[in-house]
Amino acid sequence: MSHNKSKSQQLFNKAKQHIPYGVNSNFRYWGEEETPIMARGAGAYVWDADDNRFIDYRLGFGPIILGHAHPVVTQRVAEAIQNGVLFAATTPIEIELAERFTRMTGMDKVRLSNTGTEANMHALRIARAYTGREKFIKFEGNYHGNFDYVMFSGPTAKAELLGPRSRPHRLRATEGMPVAIRNYMISLPYNDIEMLERAMVEHGEELAAVVLEPIMGNVACILPDLAWLQRVRELCDEFGVVLIFDEVKTGFRLANGGAQEYFGIKADLAAYAKAMGNGFPVSAVAGRDEIMSVVEPGRVAHGGTYCGNVVAATAAAATLEMIETQPVIETIFANGRRLMAGIGEILGRRGVAHVVTGVPSMFSVLLGKDEAPTDYRSYSEFDAELFGLLGAELIHRGILVDDDPREPWFMSYSHDAAVIDETLTLVEDAATAVFGRGGHQRKLRLAA
Ligand SMILES: Cc1ncc(COP(=O)(O)O)c(C=O)c1O
């Protein structure tokens, strides 16, 4: 299928006249002729400005857990906003939400904000205030938002510049931030117990926090080694360091209680956003009572004009009610499991070296090797360009994925069995276009 994109292109050209690169977030820029302009979404589908339909696996970079324009959420928000959206005061819906949120996550206390960035920023500040320390550990390839303290050696870092594994460099992700800020952060490879132990012994007494993504949601859904995750927990306890889970992508997507429930390991503080609001901008920092109690007028600042606004709080209340009362996660897992297996089977049948990494609600397809990556450095050994070719063929056929394999395929409650069937048929076609039916030639090229 070849899409007519004339209207999208016209709009993109116009966008560029007023918006740098025509996008309001750098990651949305795909190139001069590829950058999509989306007009609407419903359930598992989105339509671009030329009315081309796609099965959406990007889901707004993860938030759309129920499906686009889910009627339960949309209706509750539409009703709520008739009565005003912002009062500079607590509203009943925030209280309803906080009660459900703490029950589902097992966290004692929660404060709302609007983006994942804010939630992580507040988590780090709270950990610093609680411990009276300033430094923190962060892992290579982990992304915690768009604020200066954490923007080192993230998912866009050039792997070849990361330096020796035993003494990783801290690579700045953006110009415009003070170089000296890197001195607050210690960068370590993910899943490396030895390096972690060494860093803890060396810096433990000056560390406020260890912050981590419990699945590498910005690098191909690389899974944590459970022994490593357990050791992180133990060492944080031993050295009095606050363990922060960045659950922005995993929260309400892996289980009702997020990655903490899924892996059976409790964090002291966690940041949530994305799936919490089914696309509406809402986020939260939550944690143990003792730690959250440093948030106090005149002591630790937390706030913002829009924190807990009626739109966000209502959307989150409706979304979490759906997740708690309907078989949302189980259904997504069942359908996602079939999709992961189906994609693996299609690639395997063609002799293409691959791994499908992650969990059924968020996973990635990696090509060029068949051993799962364990950290950012081993991810970089996969053939991202080859996935780009497959991604382009998928998009031509109406399967919207990121053509960069670092960004996961996300599943929603609206991706039902019929949507998975349709997807697998189109994946089969796309794989044939890239690898042929048997894939022998491609296999030889890969091996060469
Ligand atoms: C794990 C993680 N943390 C934090 C963020 C930042 O969230 P936001 O873009 O809402 O500020 C993201 C965004 O993709 C993320 O994936």
Summarize the structure.
This protein is α/β, with parallel strands linked by helices and 448 residues long.
How would you describe this protein?
This protein has helices spanning 6-18, 71-80, 92-105, 116-131, 193-203, 226-239, 258-263, 289-292, 310-325, 328-349, 376-379, 384-396, 417-435, 440-447; strands at 38-42, 45-48, 53-56, 109-113, 135-139, 185-188, 207-212, 242-246, 269-272, 283-287, 354-359, 362-367, 399-400, 409-410. With 448 residues, it is an alpha/beta fold. The protein has two domains: 6-65 and 327-447, Aspartate Aminotransferase, domain 1 (Alpha-Beta Complex), CATH 3.90.1150; 71-325, Type I PLP-dependent aspartate aminotransferase-like (Major domain) (Aspartate Aminotransferase, domain 2, 3-Layer(aba) Sandwich), CATH 3.40.640.10. It has a seven-stranded mixed beta sheet, sandwiched between helices. Strands 1-2-3-13 form a four-stranded mixed beta sheet. α10 runs parallel beside α13 and α12 (384-396) crosses α13. The longest helix is centred in the last third of the chain and has 22 residues, at 328-349. The protein is globular, with a radius of gyration of 22 Å. Residues 61, 115-117, 120, 143-146, 213, 217-218, 246, 248-249, 273 line the site of pyridoxal-5'-phosphate.
